[in-house]
Write a structure and sequence with these properties.
The complex is a heterodimer. By secondary structure, chain A is α/β, with parallel strands linked by helices. Chain A contains 15 helices and 17 strands. The chains are: A alpha/beta, B mainly alpha. The complex binds flavin-adenine dinucleotide and iron/sulfur cluster (SF4).
């Protein structure tokens, strides 16, 4: 069939509800696209390697909730070792964590909702480092507002560090005792802080119940108060006709003789191979899973991996290296109470400053400190070097007496700039449960990032003192990450220096899109999901608008 | 529960080791006194089934004397086993209702939040607003 008539056919069948977009991954970005496309009348199939999970699986309502973090609800897939958890191997200063199932990372996320700074899109122009994005904050403004509504975000607008935004749909969650103590410290120092926005319903809203402050958000919310796609997106997407197939792992994206994708090959849990034809494929498998799948999809036309003529697939992995300063106060703060999102945040040190010995900056956020097991774990980590007696035996109880209920944490996430050699590769020997090569992670924390974190930690200790802390516990860079994986299929206008264009369509393959966090050009210091979802919406809407010119196999 | 249930001998061994880790403190009982080797242990092994095998194997090796040295030796020489042992003891200890009451921990209980009242931090926020230089780079 000639190209013209193929395009025409795609357009017609889309209008006739028969066309076929396959989305790989039912996480943050895949869920946005599935809902939008299904509502616009497209036939959508989403393939997800994990399962549905919900309140019956979450352990937050049980007394064993804290222990659950170590096993079934460990954010590290290498610790969980479920069927859907492909191994992450390699030598990395920071190894990613993620959840593989319907909702992706948003099953376990802390729901901190943070748009990027306006300057994040122009770091080359403003700070002479890394690259500018091909889009600006303004290009995402409408989509930010739309996804905040879909995700029932609770927050307060008007933060002067950010461009003006539509009000969030729900009032902010009270900042609580810990937020108040932290804010007073920032106030004394004259530093920026703002009440945290969270995708947690402060009151009943759409499909979400009001938050009950259990504080077990990161092992799944047993109250259905935290936004996660199985509540916010999939019910409407499925009602509109989207089909979600779970427990299947996509193993390859084959192309036709003209280099267009034909669909996806996937395996079920019995190892049986299937082919799902598609006219358009959207990759939403996160910055690790998508890079892995593209590298797995080799053909004579794409010997270095699909859509990889730039050689950038898998490279420029960014993860927001993370340190914490736990602030211990005399007064009782009831700090096991949730939500485990951000009570307040600060962007005081998020921008480049000429007097500092690093470029760009970090975002801080105040979080609760959990139950007694957390208190013991952190107290022991801080005091272990003093010997066995300092933390065990009769001294064991010091953690509960001094820290439990009296502490909160300043989490500090650094903007790590994209580095060519920080990357995702295929492991030469280790395999996942389908026999596919594991994802090998190579990642070094740069000197710029280390200096940035040292500086910010020192300031956070000052903030703790200004809050009246009796002591602080400082942790070094977390060796397992915080679930932020970005940059491995960057967007850009130049096919030689980017993988996808500004509409997140692969430069090399006209019917292949990447819509997850891999497309970030730089990472900013904001928690990325607000931007991932807004961008997925922007791109999907454009694809719908431009369907008349969509090339198909 | 993952694997087989602990035998009485294994429970006894755990109770003895547990007190090396969590001894009696001022006004608070030791681990064995609240029964970490009984039902509380069973509940931990349901929540963390992968602990069962290494923990029970370790409990079979516990010497009759020199417990203090044994636990210290474990921490240095077999950190994986020490982590399983210590995590189980700490988790079981804090599952005890008696201990929870003593430290003032109700558990991760529901407690509705209220957004009806005006936030009490608006004066502080006003100052943030006034002193902030504004964002840069918007297009
Ligand atoms: C513990 C934790 C806390 C977090 N807290 C926050 C927070 O507070 N705020 C914030 O902004 N972000 C947070 N994040 C990050 C957030 O979860 C991610 O940014 C977001 O989920 C990424 O969306 P995505 O669409 O790129 O991919 P994901 O949501 O990761 O979804 C990818 C999906 O693709 C599936 N998949 C992958 N490969 C295949 C394959 N071959 N075949 C079939 N399916 C496949 C996976 O199973 C997964 O479900 C957190 C993450 C974690 C893990
Ligand atoms: S604190 Fe709120 S959002 Fe978190 S688990 Fe509890 S009810 Fe859910």
């Amino acid at each position: 069939m000639a190209i013209f008539s193929k395009v025409y056919y795609f357009n017609m069948v889309m209008q006739g509800h028969q066309s076929n977009v396959v989305i790989i991954g039912a996480g943050a970005s895949g869920s946005v696209a599935a809902l939008r496309l299904a509502a616009a009348g497209f036939e959508v199939v989403c393939l997800e390697q994990g399962d549905w999970v919900g309140p019956a699986d979450y352990m937050g309502a049980q007394p064993e909730a804290e222990l659950a973090w170590i096993e079934r609800w460990n954010p590290d897939p290498n610790a969980r070792q479920g069927w859907a958890d492909y191994p992450l191997t390699g030598d990395a200063d920071v190894r990613p964590v993620m959840y593989n199932g319907v909702g992706g990372g948003l099953v376990q996320w802390a729901a901190m909702w943070q748009p990027l700074l306006a300057s994040d899109f122009r770091v080359r122009t403003l700070d002479g480092v890394a690259d500018d994005w091909p889009i600006s904050w303004g290009d995402l403004a409408d989509a930010y507002a739309q996804v905040a509504g879909d995700m029932s975000v609770s927050g307060l607008g008007g933060d002067p560090a950010l461009p003006e935004m539509n009000p969030y749909p729900n009032p902010p969650i009270p900042i609580g005792k810990i937020g108040r103590v932290a804010a007073e410290g920032m106030d004394r120092l004259g530093w920026h802080w703002w009440p945290g926005a969270n995708a947690i319903a402060s009151r009943r809203h759409r499909g979400l119940q009001a938050c009950q402050r259990r504080g077990t958000c990161m092992t799944g919310c047993p109250e259905n108060a935290k936004a996660t796609p199985s509540l916010t997106h999939w019910p409407s997407a499925q009602a509109a006709g989207a089909r979600l197939v779970t427990g299947v792992r996509v193993t390859e994206i084959p192309v036709d003789e003209r280099g267009r994708v034909r669909g996806t090959v996937y395996r079920d849990r019995d190892g049986v191979e299937h082919f799902q034809p598609a006219q358009v494929v959207m990759l939403a498998a996160n910055a690790v899973g998508t890079a892995r799948l593209l590298l797995l999809s080799v053909s004579s036309r794409f010997p270095g991996g699909l859509a990889n003529s730039s050689g950038l697939v898998g490279r420029r992995l960014m993860q927001h290296p993370y340190r914490t300063v736990t602030v211990v106060c005399d007064e009782p703060l009831d700090s096991w109470q949730g939500p485990w999102g951000q009570n307040i945040y600060s962007l005081e040190f998020a921008e480049t400053h000429p007097d500092r010995d690093f470029l760009r900056g970090a975002k801080w956020m105040v979080m609760p400190h959990g139950g007694p097991m957390f208190a013991v774990a952190e107290y022991q980590e801080a005091h272990r070097h003093e010997g066995f007696e300092a933390v065990w035996g009769a001294n064991f109880h010091r953690a509960a007496n001094e820290v439990f209920g009296h502490a909160f944490t300043w989490g500090i996430q650094a903007e790590d700039l994209p580095e060519h050699d920080n990357r995702v590769l295929l492991d030469p020997s280790e395999c996942d449960s389908s026999g596919l090569p594991a994802a090998r992670i190579e990642y070094r924390v740069s000197e710029n990032t280390r200096r940035m974190l040292d500086f910010n930690v020192a300031r956070a200790v000052e903030a703790a003192e200004a809050s009246g802390a009796v002591s602080t516990m400082v942790r070094d860079i977390w060796p397992t990450g915080i679930g932020h994986v970005l940059g491995t299929t960057r967007m850009g206008d130049d096919p030689e220096s980017s993988v996808v264009d500004r509409w997140c369509r692969a430069h090399d393959v006209p019917n292949l899109y990447v819509i997850d966090g891999g497309v970030f050009v730089t990472g900013g210091s904001a928690n990325p999901t607000a931007t991932i979802m807004a961008n997925a919406l922007r791109v999907t809407d454009h694809m719908i608008e431009a369907r008349a010119s969509q090339k198909v196999p | 529960m993952g694997g087989s249930a602990p035998t009485p001998a294994q429970r006894l061994a755990l109770a003895r080791l547990a007190d090396v880790l969590v001894a009696e403190g001022p006004g608070i009982p030791s681990a064995s006194a609240v029964g970490v080797a009984g039902d509380l242990l069973d509940r931990c092994l349901v929540a963390a089934p992968s602990f069962s095998e290494p923990l029970l194997a370790l409990l079979d090796e516990v010497p009759t004397g020199g417990l203090d040295d044994f636990v210290r030796w474990l921490e240095v020489e077999r950190p994986g086993d020490f982590a399983v042992l210590s995590t189980t003891v700490v988790a079981a200890y804090y599952l005890s209702e008696e201990v929870r009451e003593l430290i003032g921990y109700p558990g991760q209980q529901p407690s509705p939040l209220s957004v009806a009242a005006e936030p009490d931090y608006l004066d502080l926020l006003e100052r943030v607003y006034e002193r902030h230089p504004g964002y840069r780079g918007y297009t």
